Amino acid sequence: MTIHSSDRPSWAEPYKIKTVELIRMTTREEREQAIREAGYNTFLIKSRDVYIDLLTDSGTSAMSDRQWAGMMVGDEAYSGSENFYNLQNAVSEYYGYKYLVPTHQGRGAENLLSQIMIKDGDYVPGNMYFTTTRLHQELAGGTFVDVIIDEAHDAHNRHPFKGNVDIEKLDRLVQEVGAERIPYISLEGNVNMAGGQPFSMANLKELNRYCRKHDIPIMLDATRTIENAWFIREREEGYANKSLRSILREICDLTDGATMSAKKDLLVNIGGFFACNDETVFRKAQNMVVVYEGLHTYGGLAGRDMEAMALGIREAVMEDHQASRIGQVRYLGDMLRKAGIPIVNPIGSHAIFLNAREFLPHVDQDDYPAQTLAAELYLEAGIRSMERGNVSAGRDPETGKNRRPALELVRLTLPRRVYTQAHMDVVAESVLRVFERRESIKGLKMTYEPEYLRFFQARFAPLP
Q1: How far is the C-alpha of 398 from the C-alpha of 376, rounded, in Å?
Q2: What are phi and psi of 139, to 5 degrees?
Q3: Could you give the angle at the alpha carbon of 113 between the alpha carbons of 385 and 353, nearest 5°?
Q4: Residues 134, 264, 325, 454: which is the catalytic one?
Q5: Residues 15, 78, 448, 452: which is the catalytic one?
Q6: Considering its fold, how many domains does the chain have in total?
Q7: Would residue 1 count as lying in a domain?
Q8: Can 283 be counted among the known catalytic residues?
Q9: Active-site residue identified among 31, 325, 388, 416
């Protein structure tokens, strides 16, 4: 079967290629050995054995010539680096928060937020869990509660804003446990585990009104919020003529603080920050970062990393950059959808999510169909992807059983400014070849399970 490209008008990347990194295609025999040695976990495959790497968009984007030039003006002073103040000014200008604490990546910011604001026995509502976010909340003594709209758990539903918070679910939690036991609501832009699905500005405004009434802070996971702003402009009435920059600022002005993994939206290979408007919370974060990350003016980063991040903020809100970024994801998604491949709809911003439950309907969820499909795609063509299903969801602490989430997905995550349309053609054709032999594919059994975030390091073996 021939896969045809999208009916949308053609577009071109808004950049020229100045430097290239050579990649190689391995043989089937080499890939079989590599996946066995990796325990059928794509996280454990050596990058030299990967042809097209769609594992994640975290820290894998290509920096611009301006960012690389900025690396050369890194002020590597231990305290008071000039690059910190450049970053602080950029965050203030584009995100609007009063106070900034840099961290080595988003996980560091999540740790600060959780340790400062969560008390033992608290409940933290959020628009679907994210793996590291939930773990930090749990380690701080909190319990995550999913308050995303029901449509988010349905891969077929085409709701334009599947990242919206269900205010009624949130209110039921508040009535049940009391607002004083909810330290904040965790709001993620372009919800990753739902397939990169955005929230709407109308929903955020409603959430803001509710939270102000009950004195509950809104803490934004701003990792992909610029991409969320793109969908607001595209899909929400009244925003068609607004700039991404202005929409981003409006989102942030309706929240009280944010964690940021700059390795996504902000086009850097390492970095993050915690930002807020509450001086008391800021002082605690500023003090705690010294324990976990480094002095409060570098937070585990070199000065050059902070400079690249500051420049990345300005590049990320450029209209042509986001048009190219989201356009490439849609290009791949349209090809797969036309070929009859089951994916999450509507297509999100940073990845295409294969619906492994429908791709491999004969594989029980406790035999890890998404993990199996990710391994098969690597075996087929050297393409590395990520499981986002039963393995990522982990075990219920009460029963010890797998959580078996409604969404059992394989994420084909596109790094920014890295691959061409020809690479996307290869990916689509490879997925189709696996789909055509899907009935012969069996599941996996887990042979090693780490205590935390098992999807990173768990090992598997094929079922007989």
Answers
A1: 33
A2: -65, -25
A3: 20
A4: 264
A5: 78
A6: 2
A7: no
A8: no
A9: 388
Is residue 280 domain-resident? Answer: yes
Radius of gyration of the chain (CA): 21
Catalytic residue among 129, 184, 455, 460: 455
Residue 5 lies in a domain: no
- How many alpha carbons fall within 13 Å on the CB side of residue 208? 15
Helix, strand, coil in percent for the chain, rounding step 5 = 45, 15, 40
Tens of pLDDT, residue by residue, the chain (464 residues): 455 554 566 778 899 999 999 999 999 999 999 999 999 999 999 999 999 999 999 999 999 999 999 999 999 999 999 999 999 999 999 999 999 999 999 999 999 999 999 999 999 999 998 999 999 999 999 999 999 999 999 999 999 999 999 999 999 999 999 999 999 999 999 999 999 999 999 999 999 999 999 999 999 999 999 999 999 999 999 999 999 999 999 999 999 999 999 999 999 999 999 999 999 999 999 999 999 999 999 999 999 999 999 999 999 999 999 999 999 999 999 999 999 999 999 999 999 999 999 999 999 999 999 999 999 999 999 999 999 999 999 999 889 999 999 999 999 999 999 999 999 999 999 999 999 999 999 999 999 999 999 999 999 999 99
Q: Where residue 437 sits, what CATH number does that domain have?
A: 3.90.1150.10
Q: In angstroms, how far is CA 370 from the centroid of its own chain? A: 17
Is residue 419 within 8 A of residue 23, CB to CB? The reply is no
Check if 221 is active-site.
yes
Q: Residue 193 in contact with residue 128, Cβ under 8 Å?
A: yes
Q: Is the peptide bond between 346 and the residue preceding it cis, with omega within 30 degrees of 0?
A: yes
Q: pTM here?
A: 0.94
In terms of domains, do 220 and 324 share one? no
Quick check: is 103 catalytic? no
Q: Which one from 49, 166, 221, 265 is the annotated catalytic residue?
A: 221
- Is 130 an active-site residue? yes
What pLDDT does residue 8 have?
Answer: 62
Number of neighbouring beta carbons within 10 Å of residue 265? 30
Of 130, 161, 353, 419, which residue is the catalytic one? 130
Cβ atoms 352, 332 nearer than 8 A? yes
User: Quick check: is 84 catalytic?
Assistant: no
Q: Is-catalytic flag, 131?
A: yes
Can you tell me whether residue 7 is helix, strand or coil?
A: coil
Active site residue 162: no
Q: Which of 42, 56, 131, 372 is catalytic?
A: 131
Statement to judge: residues 260 and 120 lie in one domain: yes
pLDDT number for residue 11: 74
CA angle 149, 151, 157 (to 5 degrees): 160
Whether residues 191 and 326 share a domain: the answer is no
- Please state, in angstroms and rounded to a whole number, the distance separating the CA atoms of residues 15 and 13: 6
Distances (CA, A) of 312 to 90, 224, 230, 338: 10, 13, 17, 35
